[in-house]
Amino acid sequence: MTIPNSLARAAQNAVDTSALLREAPRPGTKQKAQLRRYEVSALLKNGEVSQTRHIAPALPVFEDAFCAFTRGSLVETEHGPVAIEDLMPGDTVLTQTGASEKVLWKGSVTLVPGRVDSRGRTRPLTRIMADTFGMQKPLSGVIAGPAARLLATPAHLRHLGGGQPMLTPVAEFQDGMSVIETQPPTPVELFHICLERHAVINVDGLQFETYHPGVNAVRMMSHSLRSIYLNLFAHIHSLHDFGPLLMARAGEGEIDAITA
Fold it and tell me: Hedgehog/Intein (Hint) domain: which residues (predicted)?
C-alpha cells in the first residue's frame, strides 16, 4: 500500500520536529520551554494539500505566523467573502491591487489570550468597532489577533513613514473606545495565510497584510530554532523564499523593516 505524500510528509515533520526540539537551546533557565501545537495546511508542488500538526516553541517568532485572524473573519475572494477557517491552500484571494493570488499556506493555533505563559506574557486580541476607519470599515465589529497588521498609520507613528503607507500592528490603534484590547479567558482559534509573495488583502472590510516573518527574522533565531521554524512551511526552504516585504512595517515606536 502506497502512503500518500501528505501523510508521509506529516510523519517526517513529526520526527524532525521532535528531534530538533531536543537540540533547541534553553538559555538562562532549567525550566522546560513552553510548547504549543500548530496546525498547518500547505500546497505542495504536486498540487496536493498537506495537512500537518507540529509541536513547536511558544515564542513570538513562531506564534506570529499563526495569530492574525480569528475564526469567522471574512477574506475577500473573486467569488465573494470566505471565512478564514474555510479558506484552503490552492484557493485564491484578492489583493490590494485587485489581482487574484493563490494561497500557498494556512496556519492555525488555539490559545487562551488572557492566560499568562511561563514568561509572564499574555496574547491579547484587538476589537475594532464598526466604521472605525470610515464607512463600512469594518462593516461590523472585528476581532484581530496580536500578529495582525493593518495598512494604516496611527497619528503617533506618522512621523516615521514620511507620509508613505505602512503596515502597523493592530494594537497600535487601541484608543480604549473604538479600538480596544480584549483578553478572553477561554480558548480562541487564530489563523494566518501566506501567498506566493507578501501582499495586502481585504479582511472584513479592512486591509491586512499576509504573513511575512520580516527582514530581521534571521537574527531573531538560532540555527536550531530556524530549522524548527522552517519545518512549519512546506512551500519554502529558506527565509529568503518569503521574498521582499511589500512596504515598510512599523511598531513599538519605530520602523522595524523597510523594503529597498
Answer: 67-214
Query: Domain range holding 89?
Result: 35-124+182-231
Average pLDDT estimate for 117-135? 91
Largest Cα separation within the chain, whole Å, is 62
Residue 14, pLDDT above cutoff 60: no
| Residue 156 placed within a domain | no
3-state class of 114 per DSSP? coil
Strands (E), the chain: 35-43, 49-57, 69-70, 74-77, 80-83, 92-94, 100-111, 125-128, 142-144, 149-151, 167-169, 179-182, 188-195, 200-203, 206-209, 249-251, 254-257
pLDDT in tens, 72-124: 999 999 999 999 999 999 999 999 999 999 999 999 999 999 998 877 889 99
Which residues face 110 on adjacent strands?
189
Q: Which range, of 44-48, 74-78, 147-151, 205-209, averages the lowest pLDDT?
A: 44-48
Provide the residue count of the chain.
260
Peptide bond into 169 cis (omega under 30): no
Tell me the C-alpha distance between 207 and 95, whole Å. 9
In whole angstroms, what separates CA 171 from the centre of its chain? 15
Write the CATH number for 85: 2.170.16
What is the CB neighbour count within 10 angstroms for residue 220?
14
User: What does pTM read for this prediction?
Assistant: 0.84
CA gap 17, 220 in Å, rounded:
19
Q: Is 192 a domain residue? A: yes
Which one-letter DSSP state was computed for residue 206? Answer: E
